[in-house]
């Protein structure tokens, strides 16, 4: 973070960061040893755990709950209106992709991982989804923050489904912190320091004022993405997210079931 809390705890261990559009790409890098830890949605982490029979990753903490929505063209007012429409998610097998496919299945729609079916799902990079929606080439998208807010505020989308309404007490995990299991076994002190810095970061996010958070987030975005976000986008996004170190492990069996239903995960016991 731009507060430097993680780097401070890591001491002499150099912290290098990399940005991924979505979880499956981050998992690929983690499993290949290109990165040692990542903030990620739960579904790609569960998928990796299942595929490797528990050998690939360790979940060390939660990071965020909430902040995922299905946003659509204003003329779409119900699930029934989605038949034959084109929707996007950040990446095939990602947490929002699985949530979208599972929810559509619950509405009686059939979807396929190749994009065919009653509703066409085209996994697309978030920035591209915004542009396609603005150009009228996309009917909606199930996205994490701040992208859901960007489509609403910058492109006139409206919320059809707020994912928190689908979970008991509105608690569902959108981001967790995981480490490569081999790295954790070889460098336990580094992982301990990473976790301490992460906990301090979450505590700061929960105690800082809205303007402090916005300033810090925009400083990071300017460094990583080249430009900051408008104040109203950050404000709306932060209202939808709860920062927490609780990984909400009680939700993982449902997430696994959804992944199996979506056709992106194998059946397993976790």
UniProtKB/TrEMBL annotation:
Any GO CC annotation of this UniProt entry: periplasmic space
InterPro entries: NrtA/CpmA_ABC-bd_dom
Superkingdom, natural source: Bacteria
CDD domains, per the entry: PBP2_NrtA_CpmA_like
Sorted UniProt keywords: Cell inner membrane, Cell membrane, Membrane, Signal, Transport
Subcellular location: Cell inner membrane; Periplasm
Family under the similarity heading: Belongs to the bacterial solute-binding protein SsuA/TauA family.
Name of the featured protein: ABC transporter substrate-binding protein
Species of provenance: Paenarthrobacter nitroguajacolicus
């Amino acid at each position: 973070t731009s507060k430097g809390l993680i780097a401070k705890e890591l001491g002499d261990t150099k912290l290098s960061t990399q940005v991924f559009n979505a979880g499956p790409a981050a998992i690929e890098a983690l499993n290949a040893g290109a990165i040692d830890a990542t903030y990620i949605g739960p579904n790609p982490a569960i998928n990796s755990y299942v595929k490797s029979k528990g050998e690939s990753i360790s979940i060390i903490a939660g990071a965020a709950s909430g902040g995922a929505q299905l946003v659509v063209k204003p003329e779409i007012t119900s699930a029934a209106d989605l038949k034959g429409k084109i929707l996007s998610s950040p990446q095939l097998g990602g947490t929002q992709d699985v949530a979208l496919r599972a929810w559509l299945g619950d509405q009686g729609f059939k979807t396929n991982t190749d994009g065919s079916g009653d509703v066409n799902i085209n996994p697309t990079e978030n920035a591209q989804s915004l542009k396609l929606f603005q150009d009228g080439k996309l009917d909606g998208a199930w996205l994490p923050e701040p992208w859901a807010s960007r489509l609403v505020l910058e492109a006139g989308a409206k919320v059809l489904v707020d994912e928190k309404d689908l979970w008991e007490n509105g608690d569902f995990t959108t981001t967790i912190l995981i480490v490569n299991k081999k790295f954790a076994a070889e460098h336990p002190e580094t992982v301990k320091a990473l976790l301490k810095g992460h906990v301090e970061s979450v505590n700061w996010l929960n105690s800082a004022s809205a303007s402090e958070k916005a300033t810090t987030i925009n400083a990071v975005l300017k460094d990583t993405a080249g430009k900051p976000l408008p104040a109203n986008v950050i404000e709306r996004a932060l209202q939808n997210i709860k920062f927490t170190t609780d990984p909400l492990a009680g939700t993982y069996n449902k997430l696994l079931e959804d992944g199996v239903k979506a056709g992106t995960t194998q059946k397993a016991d976790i």
